[in-house]
Design goal:
The protein is an alpha/beta fold. It is built from nine helices and nine strands. InterPro entries: SAM-dependent_MTases_sf.
Length: 209
């Protein structure tokens, strides 16, 4: 188990993870109107929040881990002092144009229906939720026994869980889309088709109805 500081250092130093983060941030920033605010849900150590604030977007941050929050408070101390990054104790403590959830935050939920209902109270109509989730179809995981053991569950149910300390769940996109209704519709999935076989993460864009 990594400490928050170790996780932070690793994420900043990992070229593969930085490439994923860059693509996610670029997609979020292209979708956001100038100066629009957002909630970074499961903000971790504040790497994304710092980038959003630097691009002129007031950013609320919600992070349930006390250790991560401490690291975030140090990393984003200037942005927090300038109120460009604002920590909230609950997602419901803010209203924003968008919610972003990067690096598998939503994979920690067994069922997303209640979460999307809550986020519908955060995101203004016309806004969006952008989530980066672990891709259950990624063939790079086929070398692991847990992937092969759950192939049938994925095909039949569109969902499976991996026994671990982190309680990670993996979902087919249509399962998450069903949970998001009637408050959000799935507007975009990246990648699509055969691209799902070679990418560890998939980006799901949900539009607030």
């Amino acid at each position: 188990m990594h400490t928050a500081e170790q996780y932070h250092a690793f994420m900043l130093a990992s070229p593969r993870d930085q490439a994923v983060r860059d693509r996610f941030q670029q997609m979020a920033l292209e979708l956001l109107p100038d100066g629009a605010d957002l909630l970074d849900f499961g903000a971790g150590t504040g790497i994304d929040a710092k980038a959003y604030a630097a691009s002129g977007h007031p950013t609320f941050v919600y992070e349930p881990s006390a250790e991560m929050r401490t690291c975030l408070a140090h990393y984003c101390r200037d942005e927090i002092a300038g109120e460009r990054v604002v920590a909230v104790a609950s997602p419901l403590a803010c209203r924003a144009h968008a919610v972003t959830a990067n690096f598998a935050v939503l994979n920690h939920f067994a069922d997303h229906a209640a979460l999307f209902q809550e986020l519908s109270c955060v995101v203004r109509r016309g806004g969006f939720v952008l989530a980066s989730m672990l891709n259950p179809y990624y063939l790079g995981d086929a070398r692991y026994g847990w992937w092969r053991a759950n192939a049938t569950n994925l095909l039949r149910k569109g969902h499976y869980a991996i026994p671990s300390e982190s309680h990670i769940h993996r979902f087919a996109p249509h399962v998450v889309a069903r949970a998001a209704a009637p408050y959000f519709r799935l507007e975009r999935l990246v990648p699509r088709g055969l691209g799902l076989a070679v990418q560890l993460y998939m980006f799901l864009l949900f539009r607030r109805i």
